[in-house]
Design goal:
This protein has 161 residues and is an alpha/beta fold. It has a domain of 103 residues: Immunoglobulin-like, CATH 2.60.40. Helices cover 20% and strands 36% of the residues. The protein contains two helices and twelve strands. Strands 2, 3, 5, 6, 9 and 10 form a six-stranded mixed beta sheet that branches. Strands 1, 4, 7 and 8 form a four-stranded mixed beta sheet that branches. Strands 11-12 form a two-stranded antiparallel sheet. Strand 11 and strand 12 form a beta hairpin. The termini are far apart. About 4% of the residues have low confidence.
């Protein structure tokens, strides 16, 4: 009988530990965004070795990468939000895109054409750019902290926000 109780206690302990680990992993998951693209020159050739910076000042977040042999770049697992994108390469004008919105679970693509000139010259895009999702058919929405807090879930699968 004692052997049977020890076996049940051991099984119960395993179930509790597995449940706690699963709950902590599920709580740690959050939606992320991604951005990829290609940096080209006016002739359409890829620009390798260009420095690409992605910055979200409101979140204090910055990432930097260098383009590959064909001018490709990629930023993965980004917190969703408003970003600025800067591209620099010797012999080309600096490119700045100050208003770039990246949405939850929506892969975005932003290709950039660099203009020949000195890096002291800046090409700044002043319009808000909606990065395109050319990766898959998913859609995303931008939710602010207030919207998430105000969202009230009803019983079943319906909700109101």
């Amino acid at each position: 009988m004692l052997r049977h109780i020890k076996g049940l206690l051991g099984l119960f302990t395993v179930v509790v530990v597995v449940s706690l680990i699963g709950a902590s992993l599920a709580a740690g998951q959050a939606g992320t965004a991604s951005l990829r693209g290609t940096i080209i020159d006016k002739s359409g050739a890829g620009v390798p070795g260009a420095k690409v910076q992605l910055n979200n000042k409101s979140q204090g977040f910055e990432r930097e990468t260098v383009t590959g042999n064909e001018g490709e770049y990629e930023f993965l697992a980004l917190p969703p939000g408003a970003y600025s994108l800067t591209v620099e390469k010797d012999g080309f004008r600096k490119y700045e895109q100050p208003k770039l919105q990246l949405l939850v679970n929506l892969p975005a693509t932003l290709n950039v054409t660099l203009e020949i000139g000195s890096t002291a010259q800046v090409v700044e895009v002043s319009a808000t750019t909606q990065a395109l999702n050319t990766t898959d058919a998913s859609i995303g929405n931008a939710f602010g902290e207030t919207q998430v807090k105000d969202c009230r879930w009803k019983a079943g699968t319906s909700r109101t926000c």
